[in-house]
Design a protein that fits this description.
Elements: H1 3-25, H2 32-39, H3 43-49, H4 53-81, H5 91-108, H6 110-120, H7 131-149, H8 159-181, H9 186-201
Helix pairs in contact: 1-2, 1-4, 1-6, 4-6, 4-7, 5-6, 5-7, 5-9, 7-8, 8-9
Organism: Streptomyces coacervatus
Protein name: ScbR family autoregulator-binding transcription factor
DNA-binding region: 31-50
């Protein structure tokens, strides 16, 4: 194994350990000693990659942000660039599916759990970075714009405001699911959210095409 490969593995190990600690303890309560113990690393190895707790926390968020870029890449590319970007039911179903995909990541991936908690606790950072939220809102807005242009969105919606509301709603739903069930009921909660919300978003004739439960788990 090359030195670069070892360095990348060490960095990833530290990120995963830190994400688990941040997810459980939150940014303010998490200590570097606790992260060192979880990563089973020396202080020198940790500080070689990350000079401070805030730098480490931001790296965890950035790691998740890069994964989100993969999830949202078809949306960013647009339908013309990626014809298979949307499921047959169109951009609204894509939005539903992506919310469930992120929900599964929250259940299964420690980096996602840590990054989402850190994104929520941005106010604890000396230099908060709203980029993740701005990106999520922009991607949701893109999907809403596509749905409006396709004629499936109900008239009268301000898609800028609606995008912020939908991202905020997901944030709240996953937090409540975390408190009530450790997120084991997140899929059900998201399904019920979309079932309750879609009639106010989508024209009645398009509702039968949409599945609030999202894609079947493979």
């Amino acid at each position: 194994m090359s030195r670069q490969e070892r360095a990348l593995r060490t960095r990833r190990r530290i990120l995963e350990a830190a994400a688990s600690v941040f997810a459980e303890r939150g940014y303010a309560s998490a200590g570097m000693a606790e992260i060192l113990e979880a990563a089973e690393m020396t202080k020198g190895a940790l500080y070689f990659h990350f000079p401070s707790k805030e730098a480490l926390a931001k790296a965890v968020v950035e790691e998740q942000f890069q994964l989100d870029e993969v999830i949202w890449r078809p949306v960013s590319g647009g339908v013309e660039d990626c014809p298979a970007a949307y499921p047959p039911a169109g951009p609204m179903q894509a939005m539903i599916d992506m919310s469930h995909q992120l929900g599964r990541q929250l259940q299964e991936d420690p980096v996602t759990r840590g990054a989402i908690r850190l994104a929520i606790e941005q106010g604890s950072f000396a230099e908060p970075d709203p980029t993740p939220y701005r990106t999520w809102i922009a991607n949701v807005r893109h999907l809403l714009s596509e749905a409006r242009d396709a004629g499936s969105l109900r008239p009268g919606h301000d898609i800028d405001t609606l995008a912020e509301v939908l991202v905020g709603s997901f944030t709240g739903i996953q937090l409540v699911a975390h408190v009530l069930s450790g997120r084991s009921e997140l899929h059900r909660a998201l399904t019920e959210y979309w079932r309750a919300t879609l009639p106010g978003l989508v024209k009645e004739e398009h509702l039968p095409q949409l599945d609030p439960a999202g894609p079947k788990k493979s």
